[in-house]
Write a structure and sequence with these properties.
The chain has about 400 residues and is α/β, with parallel strands linked by helices. Helices cover about 40% and strands about 20% of the residues. The protein is built from 13 helices and 16 strands. The chain has helices at about 50-65, 75-85, 95-115, 120-125, 165-185, 205-220, 265-280, 295-305, 320-330, 340, 345-355, 375-380, 395-410; strands at about 1-10, 15-25, 30-35, 135-140, 155, 190, 195-200, 225-230, 235-240, 255-260, 260-265, 285, 310, 335, 360-365, 385-390. Strands 4-5-8-12-13-14-15-16 form an eight-stranded mixed β-barrel, surrounded by six helices. Strand 2 (about 15-25) and strand 3 form a beta hairpin. The radius of gyration is 20 Å and the shape is globular. The protein starts with a strand and ends with a helix. The structure holds 2-phosphoglycolic acid and zinc ion. 2-phosphoglycolic acid (PGA) binds near residues 232 and 313.
Length: about 400
């Protein structure tokens, strides 16, 4: 049984405070985990509370529900207790940041006692043979960097890689090549929150550069390397109504998409994205439309869904109810999975299972604010996720990528 649960504020990769949780079991198991944090957060995500508030609430409500009562290895029981401690639909009482840190720390404490790797504890004895393709952010802007591209993320997608290690190295090579191409053009660039280059160039230039970089790296490595996008379009969508409370799940779609100097209607945005998929043979397009526009997502998926992954991040927020609506509407064909969007590992796995049963690919994902925590690498292997999005360079990103390389060696 769980003996104690402790919390402390630590730093994330942006230098913001975040919640770290530690779980100690009566038989000497120990687990530690920390919550990541988004910048381009979806409207329907579980609530991240200010860190001190989240920690105080977790100490008061969550810890007493677990200590002496729950077994760390019973992840469903632990996560149900965290839900009960909160009592709301969206973790607005104890904070999704406290919730997810606790959930992940309990899983790690269980593995410490069981002596099994985390991916095996979460996935079962037969897991660990399939590896996710890492989608690596190589250039971008949006909410992750000022004065950079309007599209949030240009992602290397080494879909032909024979191993996870080759895939990780290929993404790093694309990142390096993009850096060279930028400096050849005289575009000195800093890096954004996820370690991607953040030059102040137009999206059109970024497409040229990334297209060239992935081709070069494909030649060098001898396997297919494509690329994809996270457009994070909800951040660029302006509702037509002035005070539009965009609470409906069927957005009227009559607002405008403003990407830099380009302004597009929903129909134009769909045409634009479908054109990009064709022109650049995109492997992946995340959040190409607003988070309320199931209909637009369905139209685009209908048009390009057999050529590319159309992924819902802010659209689904790892939430089974929103995913169920999306499946019914034919919106997207894959789901981004961020455990802190929904608050517990059990909820994240529920979303993945529903997605998989319905032919939607799960893409397990980091946040722009990260820590050295490697739980998502194990989660991706545990559920046989076909993709993981966890950056390319930078210690908090390579923590996950290197963990994937280690797991692959073990398995
Ligand atoms: P976030 O961005 O972590 O800032 O939300 C990542 C994403 O949109 O996929
Ligand atoms: Zn996203």
């Amino acid at each position: 049984r769980i003996e104690s649960v402790r919390y402390r504020p630590i730093l994330d990769s942006r230098g913001n405070k975040t919640v770290e949780a530690e779980v100690v079991t009566e038989d000497g198991g120990f687990g530690r985990a920390a919550a990541p944090s988004g910048a381009s957060t979806g409207e329907y995500e579980a609530v991240e509370l200010p860190v001190e508030e989240a920690i105080a609430a977790a100490r008061e409500h969550v810890a007493p529900r677990l200590e002496g009562r729950e077994f760390a290895a019973d992840q469903r029981g632990v996560d149900a207790a965290i839900h009960a401690a909160d009592g709301t639909e969206n973790f607005s009482d104890v904070g999704a940041n406290s919730a997810v840190a606790t959930s992940m720390a309990a899983a790690k404490a269980a593995t410490d006692v069981l002596g099994a790797p985390l991916y095996q504890h979460l996935g079962g004895a037969f897991r660990g043979r399939n590896f996710p393709v890492p989608l690596g952010n190589v250039v971008g802007g949006g909410e992750h960097a000022a004065d950079a591209t309007a599209i949030q993320e240009f992602l290397a997608a080494p879909v032909g890689a024979p191993s996870v290690r080759q895939a990780v190295f290929a993404n790093a090579a694309v990142h390096e090549r993009v850096g060279e191409l930028l400096s050849e053009r005289g575009e000195a660039a800093a890096k954004g929150d996820e370690g991607a280059w953040a030059p102040s160039i137009e999206d059109a230039a970024a497409f040229e550069i990334v297209d060239e970089a992935v081709d070069d790296v494909a030649d060098e490595f001898g396997f297919d390397v494509r690329f994809g996008l996270d457009m994070a379009a909800a951040e660029c969508y302006e509702d037509s109504e002035e005070q539009g409370s965009s609470n409906s799940r069927t957005s009227s779609g009559d607002g405008e998409y403003v990407f830099g100097d380009e302004v597009r209607s929903t129909a134009e945005q769909i045409d634009y994205v479908a054109g990009l998929v064709d022109e650049y043979d995109l492997a992946y397009v995340e959040d190409p439309l607003d988070e309320n526009d199931y209909e637009g997502f369905a139209d685009l998926t209908e048009r390009v869904g057999d050529q590319t992954l159309v992924c819902g991040d802010d659209l689904f927020v790892t939430n089974v109810e929103r995913l169920r609506d999306g499946i019914a509407a034919g919106a997207a064909n894959s789901i981004l999975v961020k455990p802190n969007q929904i608050g517990t590992l059990s909820d994240a796995v529920d979303a993945i299972e529903l997605a998989t049963r319905n032919g939607y690919d799960a893409v397990v994902s980091h946040r722009s604010g990260e820590t050295e925590d490697t739980t998502i690498a194990h989660l991706a292997v545990a559920v046989d996720a076909p993709f993981i999005k966890t950056g390319t360079v930078g210690g908090e990103r390579t923590a996950k990528l290197n963990e994937l390389i280690r797991i692959a060696d073990e398995a």
